[in-house]
# Entry
Amino acid sequence: MTKDLNALATALYVKIDDHLIAFPELAPPRPCTGIKPALSDAELVTLAMLSALLGFTSERHWLRYARAHLTGMFPYLPGQSGYNKRLRAAITLVLHLIQILALDTSLWSDDVWVADSTPVECGRSRQTALRSDLAGWAEYGCCASHSRFFWGLRLHLLCTLGGLPVAFALTGAKADERTTLLGMLEADPGLAAAHPGQTIIADMQYYGRDFEHALASAGLRLLRKPRKGESPRPGTQLFKPLRQTIESINQTLKTQLDLERHGGRTSAGIIIRVITRVLALTTVIWHNDKTGQPVKRSLISYDH
# Structure
């Protein structure tokens, strides 16, 4: 690995290890008796973050690469089955760590958020849609910004303008984006309370009197482009450049972190693969912020 990637992995490992020492209850549950795992939880999560950052979509291929190149950092590596089981058991820990890292950045105090959703395709055949374990959660949907239909899920993101994930949710492709955004805010009541007067910039699908009233009740201000037939709304001239910012955040996840090449086949499998990519993005922003890099969302030093 490059020196920059080594530094990133080491910083994340130390951060996780220190946090688990302070809050041991966050560690995935395991039997009271038995052999202590040779791979610690901090090493496990760091290893998973590196796999997303380096573009591996197969756990088997990733462990083969790690055995060939990363034994200096990870002296013990489990088999593919053991790695799979332990990583899925660590979903709650990974979700918690994403928030811990985000809180530890200067971007967390930004007074503007952007809201959007992006497709997470899960299959391309009718047989897959009928037989997949994801059927019933994954569904057919339309991506209007790219004029395509897909079968799968949607990743809903609430980010700062610098791309730092503030909140996110994974839903079916047809889930209402307004309802999902309100659900994300309700799931973490302290989020809006800690950012009074926050501005949320969103696309035209985030509309509705009741929706805007709910945001206003939470102390949030919505800016969006007017829909056809609506009177002009304040800040309309800002949306063209900001739309590119929103799209670029999605593209970081989709092209550099291979969001749609996740390889998940079950609910737990796709959840951990998606949130691992969100963790990778958050970790890079956190590390760039701590090391004083000018572009916080740049993955150039780490994705090779």
Observations:
- The first strand starts at residue 112 and ends at 123.
